């Protein structure tokens, strides 16, 4: 998959795609249905499959101090899009110049002159241009005038509710990762580099990998059964484990992170990139009366996680 970040300087081979446009946070089933339509249209006209999205997310750009909401980092999003067959990722720099374009200017300068897109697929609620003034109907009209096709994808539902990034965030906040996974079409994963920690887990007999969750929506704090993919390095592979997501109240710390104990593993993972899939929520974070009580609970948590993951 090729990644294009500037619509003004584009290799000729990267022009002329059939593209799904959106933020694609989570790459959930609704997103996948939009991308599938773009592929179908592209197959008809001999165009590569593309996705147009934006970095930073417009919501982050306009409200940089708002609470974190993203389900995945741009790198994790790119990895997921490549896995489902996207050939061109137009991850455009969202900046003052791009955000100032009117809807018509966006169609002319970005879609036609910059990227030469041949077909575009959007959701029915799609808005674009300065002040989100452009609608799906506007894009259809621009397509007629400027020579590109437009398909409107209907919103997808799951169990009678609309599949959306907001609904997925709500499920994760409630400690229901399986509900989130049903809408995502895959486990919700937190990806990132293993960073240094306080080594407390090792001292307690449960060595853990530590990962930052800065910039991401925080699922319900507590203990989870998890699947672990080590994406690089000598220990690359798939494992199972138990993870604690939160602020570690037993030790008086406040910055939330993700600590994962990988079952039956021995090795150094510092600097490696991990992908942690949240499978099932076991319990909230607790503050114990003693370290012995904490260790006993950790043993019980690991036993339960092994049972849960054995059934997957």
Describe this structure in words.
The structure is a single chain. This protein is α/β, with parallel strands linked by helices and 312 residues long. The chain has two domains: 2-155, Rossmann fold, CATH 3.40.50.620; 187-310, Elongation Factor Tu (Ef-tu), domain 3 (Beta Barrel), CATH 2.40.30. Helices cover 32% and strands 26% of the residues. It contains ten helices and 14 strands. The protein has helices spanning 29-45, 58-62, 74-83, 96-99, 103-114, 136-146, 165-173, 177-184, 200-203, 291-310; strands spanning 2-4, 18-21, 49-55, 88-93, 119-123, 149-153, 157-158, 161-162, 188-193, 209-212, 222-230, 237-246, 257-262, 273-283. The strands form three sheets. The chain has a six-stranded parallel β-sheet, with helices on both faces. The chain has a six-stranded antiparallel β-sheet with strand order 9-14-11-12-13-10. Helix 5 packs across helix 6 (136-146) and helix 7 packs antiparallel against helix 8. The model has no long low-confidence stretch (mean pLDDT 92).
What are the salient characteristics of this protein?
six-stranded antiparallel β-sheet; 26% strand; single chain; Rossmann fold; six-stranded parallel β-sheet; 312 residues; alpha/beta; Elongation Factor Tu (Ef-tu), domain 3; 2 domains
């Amino acid at each position: 998959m090729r990644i294009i970040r500037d619509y003004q300087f584009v290799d000729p081979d990267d022009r002329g795609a059939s593209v799904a446009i959106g933020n694609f946070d989570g790459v959930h089933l609704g997103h996948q249905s939009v991308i599938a339509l773009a592929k179908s249209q592209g197959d008809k006209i001999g165009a590569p499959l593309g996705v147009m999205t934006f970095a930073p997310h417009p919501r982050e750009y306009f409200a940089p101090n708002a609470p974190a909401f993203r389900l995945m980092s741009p790198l994790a999003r790119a990895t997921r899009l490549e896995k489902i067959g996207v050939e061109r990722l137009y991850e455009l720099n969202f900046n003052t110049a791009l955000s100032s374009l009117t809807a018509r200017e966006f169609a002319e300068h970005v879609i036609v002159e910059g990227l030469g897109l041949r077909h575009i697929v959007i959701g029915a609620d799609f808005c674009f241009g300065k002040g989100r003034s452009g609608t799906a109907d506007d894009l259809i009209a621009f397509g007629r005038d400027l020579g590109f096709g437009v398909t409107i994808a209907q919103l997808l539902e799951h169990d009678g509710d609309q599949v959306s990034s907001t609904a997925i965030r709500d499920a994760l906040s409630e400690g229901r990762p399986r509900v989130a996974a049903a809408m995502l079409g895959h486990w919700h994963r937190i990806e990132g580099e293993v960073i240094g920690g306080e080594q407390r887990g090792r001292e307690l007999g449960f060595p853990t990998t530590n990962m930052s969750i800065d910039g991401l929506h925080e699922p319900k704090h507590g203990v989870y059964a998890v699947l672990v993919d080590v994406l690089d390095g000598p220990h690359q592979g798939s494992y199972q484990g138990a993870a604690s997501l939160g602020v570690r109240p037993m030790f008086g710390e406040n910055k939330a992170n993700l600590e994962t104990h990988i079952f039956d593993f021995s090795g150094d993972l510092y600097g490696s990139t991990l992908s942690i899939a949240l499978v099932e929520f076991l319990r909230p974070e607790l503050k114990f009366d003693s370290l012995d009580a904490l260790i006993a609970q950790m043993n019980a948590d690991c036993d339960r996680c092994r049972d849960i993951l054995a059934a997957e």
